[in-house]
Design a protein that fits this description.
Length: 345
């Protein structure tokens, strides 16, 4: 059974990772040496929570032969999701899953680049390449490390897309609409004439129903269906303005340093597996969710490719200014620009 497990993961992560894991996995269970608590930023039943539970929490238990036990809590159970960085740094929990979007004010532009930028990668595999092949994960670890946490891994996410009460066919249609957005996205929409408004995820349905906003950027088809947004908004806009975002897994720095090298390696591999599981689950669910949204009367609009390219160029000029913030930011922006050039964009 374990051989089958390693073979399947070899397909995803390469022969080198699989061979390393084979040497690390104990053959017999033993009492837990390390007991940790971890809070996710999503509720039970959501695809990222399921992936985290199956591949990260349970995977680490199995691969360490029971040496590591992680008690997983849903988003908001122990502290607000936006406080994960400080909570993990201070040892409220040893681990946490969150998103860099929350920490732009504390960490700066690297947090925005780390959580994903509009006009950048087009899918999770491109995003994975930016982190692991081009080396952005080293920048993330250096910057987050200054705040008392070890940046274990990105948790690659499904697209973040727009649901609207008004049709949007291109840049001109953003003019005058009230748009739920924050950070670099808000700057982008504002540059096209929108009025960006920040509201929490729990308020999206009511905000659309009461015309507080005309459009929201939230999750993929599955996540938007789960919120019932088809009941209060008619239009679903493609492509995704954030096609390759990610959450991340943080570990208390002292906790991380206390772990033996074999467990650190297993945690790293399990975190990557959780990403792949999340993407696999969401890809399977999105088509089903889209059919349900269309049956409910939602109209899908695709912005033409040439128009979208023009919009992407505009937002790239906005986030390119991050390079002016410091040497680390300049390095990260150049890394991303060079990567996009390699991808033909």
């Amino acid at each position: 059974m374990m051989g089958e497990f390693l073979v399947s993961r070899r397909l995803a992560f390469g022969a080198a990772v699989a061979a390393a894991l084979a040497a690390l996995v104990p053959q017999e269970s033993q009492a837990a040496e390390f007991n940790f608590r971890m809070q996710s930023n999503v509720p039970p039943g959501a695809a990222p929570y399921i992936a985290l539970e199956q591949e990260f929490v349970n995977g680490i238990r199995k691969m360490t032969g029971g040496r590591v036990e992680i008690q997983l809590f849903p988003g908001g159970a122990l502290y607000p999701a936006g406080e994960t960085l400080d909570a993990v740094a201070n040892g409220v929990t040893e681990l946490g899953m969150s998103t860099g979007f929350y920490y732009a004010g504390k960490i700066g532009p690297i947090a925005s680049i780390e959580s994903g930028l509009p006009g950048a990668e087009h899918d999770p595999m491109e995003r994975n390449g930016f982190f692991y092949e081009k080396g952005f994960i080293d920048i993330a670890r250096e910057v987050y490390g200054k705040h008392g946490v070890y940046y274990l891994a990105p948790n690659l996410a499904s697209p973040w897309e727009i649901v609207s009460t008004v049709p949007i066919h291109g840049a001109k249609d953003f003019k005058g609409i009230k748009m739920r957005a924050g950070g670099i996205e808000a700057e982008w929409y504002n540059a096209m004439g929108a009025e960006s408004v920040w509201i929490g995820g729990g308020e999206l349905y009511t905000a659309l129903a009461t015309k507080v906003v005309d459009a929201v950027r939230w999750g993929d088809e599955t996540q938007n269906l789960a919120k019932g947004l088809q009941e209060v908004a008619k239009y679903y806009i493609k492509p995704a303005p954030m096609p390759a975002p990610n959450n991340h897994i943080l570990v208390n720095m002292d906790t991380w340093k206390s772990l033996p090298a074999d467990i650190q390696a297993i945690m790293d591999a399990a975190a990557r597996m959780a990403s792949m599981k999340y993407i696999t689950l969401t890809r399977a669910e999105q088509a089903v969710a889209r059919a349900k949204l269309e049956k409910a009367g939602m109209e899908f609009i695709t912005i033409p490719a040439d128009e979208w390219l023009s919009m992407e160029k505009q937002v790239r000029s906005i986030w390119a200014k991050y390079a002016e913030k410091g040497a680390t930011e300049a390095k990260a922006v150049k890394m991303l620009q060079d990567y996009l050039a390699e991808l033909g964009r």
